[in-house]
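Appendix B. Raw example, untouched.
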Amino acid sequence: MADSILDNETELLAPATTPDVTPKDALVLMSIADAFVALQKEWENPTPAMSTGLSPIDKQMRGGLRPGDFVAVVGSAGGGKSALIAQIALETAKAGASVIYASVEMPSTEIVARWLAREAFDELPADASVRGDLGYASILYGEHTREDSDVLALVEGARQRLAVVADRVFIQQVSPGSTVADLRELVSAARSRRPGPVVLCVDPMQRFYASETEGRKGRALEAVNASETERVGAVAQELKELADKHEVIILATSDTTKAAAGGATSSALSLRGSYVFNHMCTLVLGLHSKDTADQLAAWLALGAANNGDVPTFDVNALDDALPAKWRGPAAMNLGQRVVAVECSKNRRGRPTNFALGGVLGAAWFGSAEDSALERPAPSKGKGKARARAVGPADPRTGLHKICLLYTSDAADE
């Protein structure tokens, strides 16, 4: 009888089933031996890097971008931040990656117009001249269709080149206040269509909000999102987790602080919102730009005098970094800018500052290091480009084949 009562009490006290006390994302201890095995696998089968299309950035990243990388580009409004990450993203798409461009500020039509302008300008020889306006604003509003212009045919050629990657490049205009959870869904949707590397552009970081989690909901979540410092820090941590766990490459733009908008300030100090953002990044690039090398060198020198963290550039070094295409006649009416790029953070090696030539009207950046890869013009004098559609349109795509013709000044005379 006593044994029977004891058995009943034991049954009452004991749980029906053993509870699962393992957290959903349980930490797994990794020994040095485990790390050696993982490192040996990386040595035997290195993770391939995707080129950014710009040699100075590829050198910083030891060959290019890899899954898990988180790159931030910071600069003042109109300084080319969005154009630079869009150009890099397009280059990774050409290398086989799926690209998601999540923009709070730009509609998809503007982003595509920028890519069309960039591709059309990039295809020109360094010394070619073009009749008409090749700027992305002209393309956006259909002003490039005039019959006396070369631009229509150039844009048609650019559209053909973009068609090659059209099935793996996605443009999403998102609402202010969207979260990293929303971006995670976009990544999953892209992977469901096409497996492989994914590049996610976040433009700009400061317009995104922290996601709801088990430990951050209700008033706690509202409090985090009410403070820009707390919000940006939380979003940066979520993006880094997304990059690491889902093997995504993140390219993010960052607004500058008010102090940086008023004068040259180091990118290490001008990431608006949170220093946590800087800590989470693999690479931080700050853009400083002016119309000429002289103006930029003087502006940076003044900033360095007021703030010792600002990098200085020699005028000759800035001028030597400008690619031949930047100096060409086609670039003259498209917003040429000399861009000093300050690398304030690099987890892949020693941070090294460098310079680029920017043609912002064409959403294009180039480096003198890559000038050897530019298509040479066939004539010794100043060339002129003529682009002409050849043959009927493809019935499936509506695209024409394009023939580019180059003539010298002597031939025109």
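End of appendix B.
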